[in-house]
Structures are given as C-alpha cells and as structure tokens.
C-alpha cells in the first residue's frame, strides 16, 4: 500500500517532468535565484527590482503573515465581544449582535473585501486634499500615514532590551504567583515592574543615548513619503477578514458558553461571585474547551482566505508569487508546489500552536 | 464519551483497494501525454471546433458584445483560422483567459491558439514551450493620467502611484523605465484589467499603464473619458502576437500563413467585397492567394480555397483593423506602425509563391 502510494507519486512527478521537457518548458528551481525585475508596493523587508524570486517569496509570505496575524487578533477580539453580546440580557445589544452575525456571515468574503476597498478609495480624498491631524497624521485614498521613527546606530539593540524587560517581568510575575499559591497573599507588584522598566530604560539610554529620529510623513510630489503607512489594500483586507471571521467566531463563542451547564453559573452566584468574575473565572475557562477546536479552523480559514486579496492588489503570497512571479517565469508547476507547501506549513503551524494551547486548557480527568 | 460510537472506517481494507486500483492502472498510466505532440490539425478537425484563448474583455482586441459575440482584431484572427481549417467562422470556442493563466492554458492543450494581445518576448518564446507566429499588432507601453494633474510627459511622473495588470510585461517595463531614469514610484498590480482601471478611475493611482492601444480602449470605460489624457510617449516595444504550442510545426505554419494571407490580401487590394470579381484577376499573385493557380493550400494540409474563405468571411488585415481599432471603430486608432510596409508601416508578409 505504501509502495503503491509512493509509486503513484513517482509516476505523477515523472510524467509531469517528461511532458514539460517534451514541450520545451523550462523546469527546475533555478529561477529562484534570478532577479524579478518588478517592484511591489508593500514590503516589510528590503526588496527592489534587482532582488531575487526567493526574496520575493519571502516578501509575499511576510505580507500574508502580517495580515493573517493581525486578522486573527482582531477577529478574536471582535468575535468574543459579539459572541458574549449575543448572550446579553439587554435586548438591543443581543439583537445588534445577532444582526452583525447574520450580515457578515452570509455575504461572500470576496464581495466584502471589494466593498471595503471601493469604499476606501472612493470616499477618501486625493492626497492633495488629505484629512490631516496635527500635521502628522494623514488619511487619503493612497493610505493612512502615521508618524514613525528611523533608527540610528544602536537603535537595533532596543529589541534586546525590550526582550530583557519582558523576561524580567515574567520572572517577577511567576514569583508572585508562587507566593500567592503558597501563602494566599496577593500583593501589588506593580512597583516591581516599574523598577525593572526603569533599570532597562536607564541602562539603554546611558549606553546608546536616543538613537532615533522622528520620521514624519510629508507630501512630496504626488504622494506622501516617510512615516509609517498602511495602504488601502491592506486596510480593506484586514477589515474584511476580521469582520467576516469574527461573525463565525461569535457563534463559536456563543455555542461554547451555552455548552457550560447552567448550574456552574448558579453555583458561582451562590458563592457570591459577581457576574463578571463568574463569567471570566468560571464560565469562559470551561467554554474554552469547546471553543478552541472550531476556533482553530477559523484561524486556518482566515489565513487561507487572505489569498483573495489578489483582487484588490494587496501583494500577498498568492498575488505576487503564484500570480506575478508565475506569469513572469512561466514555471507553474514549481511555483504552485511551493505556494501549496507554504500554506500547508502555515496551517500546520497554526494547528500546532492551537493544539498546544488546547492541551493546556483541556479537562484533565483523574 | 462512550455513548458516542462512530462507525470506524477500516483503514487496511481501504489501503488494499487503493493498492489494487493503482497496480491495475499502472500499465495504462505509464505513457500519458496530455496533448499529443503534432496532430493539432487532425485533433481540431475531429472535434470540429477550434478553441481559441482570448482576453476577458479588451475592446478592439477581444471583447464580447451584449449578445455574447466576440469582436476585436484577435477574435477576428481566431475566426480566420477557424474558417481556413474548418470552413466555418462559428466553429470556434472562445476561452477567456487572465494574463496569469494564458501560457499554462496553451501549454496544457486547453486551447489550440492563443490570440490574446500577448507581447512576443525572448523568454516567452524560448522558455515557455510556445511559438509566436508574427505580430498582428505593433504596440508600445504608455500611460494615461488625469488632465487636471497637469502632467504632459512620463518624465514628470516621479513619485507617482501607478496601477497596472499583474503578471504582464508592463510591470517589468515600468520597473525598468523608472529605475533607469532614477525615478520613484508605487505600483499596485491587479489581477484583472477591469479592477486596475476601476482603481485608477477611483483615484487610487495617478496613472494607469498598459499597451497604448489598451489605454485608448480602456479610456472609453472611464466615468468621464474626456477628463483623461493618454501621454504620447511609449516606454517599450510590444509586438503583440498570436501563439501556438511548440512542437507542431504544421499547425504553426497554418496559423502563420492565415495571418500572412490576410496581410497579402490587403496589399493586393483583395477584400471581402471584391473577392468574387478578384477571382478573375489576371494578377498571378492574386490568383495564387485565392487558389486559382498553384496548390498552396494543399501544401498546408488544407484545400486551395483556404484564403478565399478567410477573406470572404473575415476580410483582409486592413478591414479587420478598421472595424475593430481604426476609423470604423470607437477607438479611432491610427494605423501608424501597423500600416503595411508599402505605406511606411511594419506589417510585412512574405509572398505566396
């Protein structure tokens, strides 16, 4: 059976290679080292026309990753809020949540993406007539521009210092928890965190000074340059993916909460816990066991759905690599194979992280 | 949870079945070749329909009208080939293709002929397993901008946002041009040209770029065509050519000579109106073209009336140009580079003799 399967795969590969060779179509992965010759409009790492297809692949992957990670974050936040609102005793809140879910769940995602995109580029003004705030925030149909900073030598160490700060806080928090479990005393440790922060910041400033300078957006010629900018494509895609997926997550959350037996809530009330504490400490932790598996599916869907962005020119993996690069090189088989492998890897990674989390919250039967 | 008893699929048995099927199929699988090399002509005759890859709608080249009938210089060319091979201008299936999938469709045998305003480049000709047959439109890449931004030259577009179609030579040309002139730009590449044009129209970009013929065609679709101007400069040369799969020389010859027949017809003054009287012409070139003398059609694997049918049903190159792109169309594009060589253009066909 295994042999037959391997044989089948071997045959498929062999047949494809033989046919492509017979048709004189270039094959192999050598093209990854060639330079691409075209530019794209959102890159998180350095990239220009002289970069290789490998680099392009990485740029596309990062663009997919950033919209997916942020989308998952926002979808989860909105989804939990709407899901809980749907269970609210307040008639208006509950009905609004219901309407939200039914609208966003039932419209095709591609339409929603196009809707937000067209809305942004049609309604927002031309760069010359941008909405501005304090002369540093600008909004127009080319994007949202925020003030940002550029790093001078030494600036890169900030990440290490932040890491150090995080590790310090983690250590203090753990110690505090152990103390609480041992003695039952809850002490305010805020001052400890502040202390760690001051030490880290002070050390950093004394070593490197302030190695940053402000980088403000300014209108130059046709467009704004400088600062931190978000293209309308990115914003439209993020909004559409978040709102769409949130409507599914809301229903998952509702189902999860309803799956917790009513007695749990009543018992919590009987112990004198206020409603919010009962919800956060009693109901939600139990609901999570039901919520997480379908939530994982939604996260996977969101990541894969981000590939619809080709329609609005957001340069994610499918659009730039399985689209433009495929057409420029003509090596469809290799490129589609790489793209599928990457999506598989991303999905398996998400699953792995969620399964790990699930294993932690799952009920341990003794 | 043992009140839930799901029926369990027994894996060993499924596996065995799979193994048996695979082994049974193996001998049959050994030599599968998707589109038989050579024999495209026989295949088309057997199926009695020509499959032709066209755009998803570019006025002047290939676009369906409200009755679903395809018009344009490329659509005409597909018809001309169908008429020459099958004798029927309607024995044709138009397959609309995005820029992204066009070469794969041709390589895999989904279409017999790609007539989709495709630029003839060395990479495409040599690395994609396809064969270009000759430019049926000489084009160059240009830019369209709003009149009110006051730009008169491409050189003034430094720092502009540009909308383009993904996966085309235009993306590469923009990169080359702006880079070599030290100019800055932002490019938004859309999968479909309608999306790119719509984004440009909404103000997302300062300029939209594609082949100049395409700019004139797309300008008609803008909300207010008169508010936009096509810049006169071109930044590249774009010989647009139909293409066939590599490896079938007979089929490539047929397609190539249909194109040449239409050009020769224009040069010799033969058109769809005067063709019957032309049959009696004493001019030997015309007599050879129309199959009165010689057996040129037979050497192509067709009959000697092949060119006569093409000219009667579709017309000569000039007629097709005028109807779709030129004076008789909405686009009103000058012949320019696409005039015959006898009139200072580049369209030149080898003689039929």
UniProtKB/TrEMBL annotation, chain B:
Top-rank taxon, per record: Bacteria
Pfam families xrefs: SBP_bac_3 (PF00497)
InterPro entries: Bact_solute-bind_prot3, Solute-binding_3/MltF_N
UniProt keywords, alphabetically: Signal, Transport
CDD domains referenced in this protein's UniProt entry, alphabetically: PBP2_BztA
Gene Ontology terms describing biological process: amino acid transport
Gene3D superfamilies: Periplasmic binding protein-like II
Domain Solute-binding protein family 3/N-terminal: residue ranges: 49-278
UniProt key word Transport: yes
UniProt keyword Transport present: yes
Homology family: Belongs to the bacterial solute-binding protein 3 family.
Official protein name in the record: Amino acid ABC transporter substrate-binding protein
């Amino acid at each position: 059976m295994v042999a037959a399967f391997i044989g089948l795969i071997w045959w498929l590969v062999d047949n494809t290679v033989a046919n492509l060779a017979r048709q004189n179509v270039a094959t192999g992965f050598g093209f990854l080292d060639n330079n691409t010759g075209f530019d794209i409009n959102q890159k998180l790492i350095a990239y220009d026309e002289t970069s290789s297809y490998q680099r392009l692949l990485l740029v596309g992957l990062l663009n997919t990753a950033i919209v997916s990670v942020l989308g998952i974050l926002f979808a989860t936040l909105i989804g939990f809020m709407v899901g809980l609102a749907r269970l609210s005793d307040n008639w208006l809140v509950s009905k609004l949540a219901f309407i939200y879910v039914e609208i966003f769940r039932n419209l095709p995602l591609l339409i929603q993406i196009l809707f937000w995109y067209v809305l942004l580029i049609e309604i927002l003004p031309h760069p010359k007539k941008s909405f501005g705030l304090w002369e540093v925030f600008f909004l127009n149909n080319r994007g949202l521009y925020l003030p940002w900073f550029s790093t001078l030598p030494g600036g890169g160490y900030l990440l290490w210092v932040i890491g150090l700060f995080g590790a310090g806080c983690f250590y203090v928090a753990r110690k505090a928890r152990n103390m609480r479990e041992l003695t039952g005393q809850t002490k305010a440790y805020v001052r400890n965190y502040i202390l760690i922060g001051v030490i880290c910041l002070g050390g950093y400033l004394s070593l490197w000074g302030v190695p940053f300078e402000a980088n403000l957006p300014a209108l130059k010629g046709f467009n704004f340059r400088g600062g931190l900018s978000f293209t309308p494509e990115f914003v439209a895609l993020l909004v559409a993916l978040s709102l769409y997926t949130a409507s599914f997550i809301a229903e998952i959350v509702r189902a999860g909460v309803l799956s917790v037996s009513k007695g749990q809530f009543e018992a919590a009330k009987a112990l004198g816990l206020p409603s919010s504490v009962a919800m956060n400490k009693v109901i939600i932790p139990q609901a999570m066991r039901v919520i997480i598996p379908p939530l994982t599916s939604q996260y996977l869907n969101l990541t894969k759905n981000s590939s619809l962005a080709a329609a609005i020119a957001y340069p994610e993996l499918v659009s730039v690599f399985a689209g433009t690069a495929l057409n420029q090189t003509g090596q469809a088989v290799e490129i589609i194979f790489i793209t599928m492998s990457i999506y598989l890897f991303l999905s398996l990674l998400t699953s792995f992280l969620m399964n790990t989390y699930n294993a932690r919250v799952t009920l341990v039967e003794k | 949870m043992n009140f839930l008893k799901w029926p369990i699929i027994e894996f060993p048995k499924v596996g065995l079945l799979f193994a048996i099927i695979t082994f049974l199929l193996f001998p049959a699988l050994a030599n599968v070749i998707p589109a038989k090399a050579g024999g495209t002509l026989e295949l088309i005759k057997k199926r009695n329909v020509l499959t032709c890859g066209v755009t998803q709608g570019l006025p002047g080249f290939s676009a369906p009208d409200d009755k679903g009938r395809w018009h344009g210089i490329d659509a005409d060319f597909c018809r001309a080939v169908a008429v020459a091979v099958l004798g029927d201008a309607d024995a044709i299936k138009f397959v609309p293709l995005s820029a992204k999938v066009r070469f794969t469709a041709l390589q895999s045998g989904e279409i017999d002929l790609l007539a989709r305003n495709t630029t003839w480049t060395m990479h495409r000709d040599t690395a994609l397993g396809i064969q270009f047959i000759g430019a049926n439109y000489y084009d160059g890449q240009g830019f369209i901008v709003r009149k009110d931004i006051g730009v008169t030259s491409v050189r003034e577009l430094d720092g502009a946002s540009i909308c383009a179609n993904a996966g085309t030579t235009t993306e590469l040309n923009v990169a080359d041009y702006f880079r070599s002139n030290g100019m800055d730009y932002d490019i938004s590449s859309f999968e479909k040209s309608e999306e790119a044009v719509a984004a440009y129209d909404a103000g997302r970009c300062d300029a939209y770029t594609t082949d100049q013929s395409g700019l004139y065609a797309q300008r008609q679709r803008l909300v207010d065509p008169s508010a936009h101007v096509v810049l006169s400069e071109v930044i590249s040369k774009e010989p647009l050519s139909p293409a066939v799969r590599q490896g079938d020389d007979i089929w490539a010859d047929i397609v190539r000579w249909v194109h040449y027949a239409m050009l020769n017809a224009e040069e010799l003054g033969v058109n769809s109106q005067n063709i019957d009287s032309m049959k009696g012409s004493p001019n030997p070139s015309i007599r050879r073209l129309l199959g009165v003398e010689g057996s040129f059609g037979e050497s192509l694997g067709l009959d000697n009336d092949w060119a006569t049918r093409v000219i009667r049903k579709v017309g000569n190159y000039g007629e097709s140009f005028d109807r779709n792109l030129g004076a008789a169309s909405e686009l009103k594009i000058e012949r320019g580079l696409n005039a015959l060589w006898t009139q200072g253009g580049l369209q030149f066909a080898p003689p039929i003799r």
